[in-house]
Amino acid sequence: MSTQGTTSRLHSGPGLPADVLAELRGFVGDQHVLVHDGDVEPFSRDATPLFRARPDAVVLPATTAEVSAILALATRRGIPVTPRGAGSNLAAATIPEHGGIVLVLTRMNRVLEVSQGELLAVVQAGTTTATLADAAAAKGLLYAPDPGSRTVSTVAGNVAMCAGGLRGLKYGVTRNYVLGLEVVLPTGEVMRTGGRLWKDVAGYDLTRLLTGSEGTLAVITEITVGLLPMPATSSTGVAYFDNLSDAGRAVAQIIAQGTLPATLEFLDNRCVNAVEDYAQLGLDRQAGALLLFGDDGGPDVVAASLQRMADVCTDIGARGVTLAQDIAGSEALLYARRCSLPALARLAPITMLEDVTVPRPKLAEMVDTIDAITAKHDVTCATFGHAGDGNLHPTVVFDPGDGDARHRAEAAFDEIFHAAMALGGTITGEHGVGAAKRPWLAARLGPDQLALLKRIKTAFDPAGILNPGKLGS
Amino acid sequence: MSTQGTTSRLHSGPGLPADVLAELRGFVGDQHVLVHDGDVEPFSRDATPLFRARPDAVVLPATTAEVSAILALATRRGIPVTPRGAGSNLAAATIPEHGGIVLVLTRMNRVLEVSQGELLAVVQAGTTTATLADAAAAKGLLYAPDPGSRTVSTVAGNVAMCAGGLRGLKYGVTRNYVLGLEVVLPTGEVMRTGGRLWKDVAGYDLTRLLTGSEGTLAVITEITVGLLPMPATSSTGVAYFDNLSDAGRAVAQIIAQGTLPATLEFLDNRCVNAVEDYAQLGLDRQAGALLLFGDDGGPDVVAASLQRMADVCTDIGARGVTLAQDIAGSEALLYARRCSLPALARLAPITMLEDVTVPRPKLAEMVDTIDAITAKHDVTCATFGHAGDGNLHPTVVFDPGDGDARHRAEAAFDEIFHAAMALGGTITGEHGVGAAKRPWLAARLGPDQLALLKRIKTAFDPAGILNPGKLGS
Asked: Chain A neighbours among B 114-173 (CB < 8 Å)?
């Protein structure tokens, strides 16, 4: 069934019927159903530039039972529902393109449990990633996934998008830490998948299927995540190279030596200069590439690991290598990476942050390709990202008032996505597909897999109400 | 739709129609289609005792295209197909209960690639786990999952069952290492899911959904797995405790100290004695529990980790603690765990190896419960397993000629499964559901989730030909 077929049965038109609004207000209370322009406007967009659509209503439930009642009603009446946490996603995954209800889970924000004995935490959907990480840290435990948006993003949002982050190489991504979920099907059934165990093979792995399903299969209301013992310490170093190719060789050599370090991040020359303009950190503006490397664990292990990585960088011919002397020094170095996006964002009104991923050995080749493509299209682009897992964030900035700038940026990204796929890579490593990457999903998956996605979608959501138009719709 | 409803449309009766056999022979060659009693008998059973069903034919394809042709034909004609690797699974997951074709993938057994740069390997479905591990080790890389059946089990079988193993606590299970799959849908479409990347969120996570789907959704023909740098060294120690409760406290304390070691395995007193009878290793026959602990990594880290764990065991009041002096000593200690199953198996003709998993702090309570239940039913049971992840293997032995021994064993297991679920555990941690655990799946998942599994099954397998009667059928 086509997107057309699914979504054409949905309610559309200005506003929701009065009786539906009355029911919604009955479920969650008048003050938690927003319909006025000023109230719903913040929920017509997320962190993705250029995408916007007004919902008919924004509904903020406080309990799983309320979520269930809302979804059952929506299925009964064919009303689109777009679940949303903080709206910090970068793929336009929470844009309510078909109107209807934006279902905001941020009132369900309690940390229900942190268990040292079981190395797990149980949180409600709207808990922020940082709140979860802090609650774990207070008991000496690490919640490993650390997406850039962690201070505002919600755990359910992280799960829905399978968020990544800076620790991916050593620790994996959100998927690797989701043990169990409480979800509500679009038809209203409340269901628990997985549980409190790292090992549990009873039934299809719905927990992992729901992770990364971008709010199209079910609404996540509660999450059980695995935690790790907190590493005793961590440290960071920085190396400058003449070009990305050398930085790539250093990364390969570090890993060939038997280390999967916690941090291997890179900035290209344009990004280094944008960060230096923004934050005056004393970075080497002439360097073709900056490589941040870091590790965590016991103090001796970390010291040895850092020295080994520094030695590799020196051997490869780095222009300069510096190891942080203490935690503050480490944080200062990491700041160069963390402020890349804000540094680039102030160059022009619109910042398009992309997320292609290629096999690790293709990293330098891909960055060269990005440079060639963006030059051809006369587009301003800088690239930073996760060198350890081949995850690049080419970032294009432009002024929408500048003629066909947007069109040129889009043309460049189209070529970049196809180039990444040609290198055995993917159109999105950690940001998701949403509405933003939808035009390239068929090229990535092929028609048979796209058809299978639609059949799976229907198995969960027969009326097609949940985040219509996105993955599997 | 019920199992009845799905399977009643399938072909049944003695043998396959002559034209179907002719087509199958045309696809794979006469010698790769087996139909005679003696030839198909080995494929009427797997490593699970008491389950047996004769297939109409055994077909051994050599290529993905052949798999596709066979499946398309089977869907067209409504013929059940049960995919199978080595048949080493312990859940009766490859028993062809509805006859039809057993599709054996063991001819497709090539290691296609081991990449040091990308830390991955690509293998055909029928490659054994040990062959993959050896090919990786030859390039200094570790394939982390290590199911007990690794010398015979196939990688596709491991993926289909989401096999676990002894390294689960530190390294996770098969699911954590599957990067990409080539699969054939029951309707014949060949499809690639995932790829060569650790980070890739384009589309639903079919790779993980297929992992653990027990051959009910698609036939896996090729697997891309992630590898790790090979740890420089590893070592093992053993501690004896008066009772399992003390061993459980040691495990909790070890983890509370911030270590997730590579090995934390236990044997109860009965298992210690069975192993000692079998192998004369000089184990402490009076001990209530034997705890094996081990770790891997750099030599200094491993030595410190082992000493720390030994100290914890001593502090808890272990009757004795020994650290292996070298690799040979380590292997000797691990042998006690590895020979538990053969040691127990020779006690009686039938060995029922179970696989309940409970939250780690409930381990000792669960073992006590198992002892009480098996005593009540007059059943001989010993328990060993993975203390680090709460995965227990209570093993019941009996003589089928001994009156109602089988009935008593089944009654005991029924109580054991319900007890595990009552403690927040599951009916299977790593062996799978298959036909063996099917009676308890509804209790574990509930009716809504079972119905969802069936809808997902139909999305992949509209004719219901693939491993009918198992998960989702």
From this structure: 116-119, 140, 161-162, 164, 168-169, 172-173
